[in-house]
Design brief:
By secondary structure, the protein is of the alpha/beta class. It folds into 2 domains: 194 residues, NAD(P)-binding Rossmann-like Domain (Rossmann fold), CATH 3.40.50; 156 residues, Dihydrodipicolinate Reductase, domain 2 (2-Layer Sandwich), CATH 3.30.360. It contains 15 helices and 12 strands. The protein has a 6-stranded mixed sheet with strand order 3-2-1-4-5-6, sandwiched between helices. A 6-stranded mixed sheet has the order 8-10-9-7-11-12. Helix 4 runs parallel beside helix 6.
């Protein structure tokens, strides 16, 4: 099946996703029967372009000013462009092969404008994949219901820990298991900074290094003040614990220059300071927290170095399940989008056994 893709946002993640599609083209076709073409791109600063026959991505990638000089690159408001592109792609939408790929900037408090883009895409019968944690953290329940009404997929594996399959793991491979809670280190910038501080580096220098590497958020306060971790905690709680949290409802304490002395002191006692995100259920109420915690040296989270992340899920039947990301970055986040596209393709062309199982589920 050939999927038509509309990219909303064309920053580093979206560009790496496009190149990954090209690099994996043969494997995707052989193993999953998946091919794709980019029919639309919307950028914040360089305009928009739509071509029903597919945008020439070779020219776009080589251009120092993306989208300029390649046909229709006027700058309508992004929502107007998206609605127009969705209308022009309505045949692909009816055939279940239209996918909107949303990678806009995080809004930690409302998830906008990403939430509105996703709503519009689902209403037009497009599937949606995103690497943006904002919509999952701020509007998960409403968007899940919108996807169910449209009978389309909304997938977001890249929202937490890049391409490590946390949401897929629970959704696809843990039937009859209930997640009771979780705790984890989910922000690469602060973990790198705390590790660097333990080695004698100054707080400001460690942060500047993360910004120079492009790992820290554009607004560094989202990392050091704990907002990024709070958004991820809310997203995980909403999906895994059926919570109705937003980042503003997550108890939050970040790290500051004063935290450096605490991290060094903890090392002196054989412990390590980590910015830990956690959530648990008490009756019907789910609470979540982000805060620096001193951990025993044998705690799996205490053993994380530099940009490493990890989540420990607490479950009813399998006890604790630890998922460790020893290295993350642009390719891993882009891979999450690729993985979500393959998941949609599998839905579109299920095996005979899967079709029979779904038919029995509908009857029963």
């Amino acid at each position: 099946m050939t999927f038509d893709l509309i990219l909303i946002g064309f920053g580093n993640v979206a560009r790496r996703f496009v190149s990954l599609l090209d690099e994996q083209r043969g494997r995707l076709t052989r193993q999953y029967g998946v091919s794709s073409r980019i029919v639309g791109i919307a950028t914040r600063r360089h305009g928009h372009i739509f071509s029903p026959r597919g945008v020439d991505m070779t020219k776009v990638r080589l251009s120092p000013t993306p989208l300029r000089g390649f046909g229709e690159t006027r700058k309508p408001e992004t929502m107007a462009f998206l609605r127009s592109a969705l209308h022009k792609s309505r045949v692909a939408a009816r055939e279940r092969r239209l996918v909107v790929v949303e990678t806009t900037t995080l809004d930690v408090h409302r998830g906008e404008p990403a939430v509105s883009y996703i709503r519009a895409a689902l209403a037009a019968q497009a599937h949606v994949i995103t690497a943006n944690k904002g919509p999952v953290a701020c509007a998960y329940g409403a968007l899940r219901r919108a996807a169910e009404r449209a009978d389309r997929r909304w997938l977001f594996e890249g929202a937490v820990m890049d391409g490590v399959p946390i949401f897929n793991l629970v959704r696809e491979t843990l039937p009859a298991v209930t997640v009771l809670g979780f705790r984890g280190v989910v922000n690469s910038t602060t973990n790198f900074m705390l590790t660097a501080i333990e080695r004698g580096q100054r707080f400001d220098d460690a942060l500047a290094q993360m910004q120079a590497m492009g790992i820290a958020e554009a607004d560094a306060s989202l990392d050091v003040d704990g907002w990024d971790a709070a958004a991820k905690a809310a997203a995980l709680a909403n999906v895994l614990l059926d919570a109705r949290l937003t980042p503003d409802q997550v108890e939050r304490q970040g790290i500051a220059r004063e935290t450096a002395a605490r991290a060094i002191e903890a090392m002196g006692h054989g412990r390590r300071l980590k910015l830990v995100a956690c959530a648990s259920r008490q009756g019907r109420r789910v609470t979540a927290r982000v805060s620096p915690e001193e951990l025993a040296s044998d705690d799996p989270l205490a053993q994380l170095e530099d940009q490493q992340n990890a989540i420990i899920l607490s479950t009813d039947l399998l006890g604790e399940i630890a998922i460790v990301q020893r290295g993350g970055g642009l390719t891993q986040t882009a891979y999450a989008l690729l993985s979500d596209l393959v998941t949609i393709a599998r839905d579109a062309t299920p095996s005979a056994a899967t079709r029979q199982s779904r038919q029995r589920a509908r009857r029963g």
